Amino acid sequence: MNQKFTFSIFLFLILCTSCDYRTPSKNRFENITKIELTDSIIVIQDRFEDSGPDYGLFYKFTFNESDCLDFKSKIQKSEDWIKEGGDFKFYKTADGIIYNITFSTEECQISYYEDLI
Fold it and tell me: Which of 62, 67, 75, 77 could form a disulfide with 81 if both were Cys (CB 3.0 to 4.6 A apart)?
């Protein structure tokens, strides 16, 4: 009986640590920028790299043409986005996390990078 109980707890711990409980990248992007994304975005890359207490999140997606124009109008009104050349940049540090976001107007793509300090 004792071995079965120990094995059950061990199996439970393995299952809990193997699951990915992190907040989805889309939600993380929306929370930090305060801009809602449509469901029509096309995700190019969504990679989470965990290295002990540190991590890096790489999230890249593109819009269809109408959503691209809508997003561009939203960030042009925002004080958080800075225009550099033809692109827009968003940079913020909060709660020990660095957020670095680039919106390529030519490709209509967002490159989102989040890194723990």
Answer: 75
- pLDDT by residue (tens digit) across 37-71? 988 999 999 998 887 778 899 999 999 999 999 99
At 53, which amino acid appears?
P
Distance CA 78, CA 101 (A): 14
Sheet (strand 109-116) strand order: 42-51, 54-62, 109-116, 97-104, 87-94, 81-84
CA–CA distance, 25 with 22 (Å, rounded to integer)? 9
Is the separation of the CB atoms in 4 and 12 below 8 Å? no
Residue type, 20: D
User: Residue written as tokens 């989040």?
Assistant: 114
Helix, strand or coil, per DSSP, at residue 15: helix
Closest by CA position to 97, among listed 23, 19, 17:
23
Task: Provide the whole-model pTM.
Answer: 0.78
Please report the beta strands in 52-108, taking only residues with DSSP state E, as ranges in sequence order. 54-62, 81-84, 87-94, 97-104
pLDDT digits (tens, 9 = 90+) for 3-26: 888 877 777 666 655 555 678 999
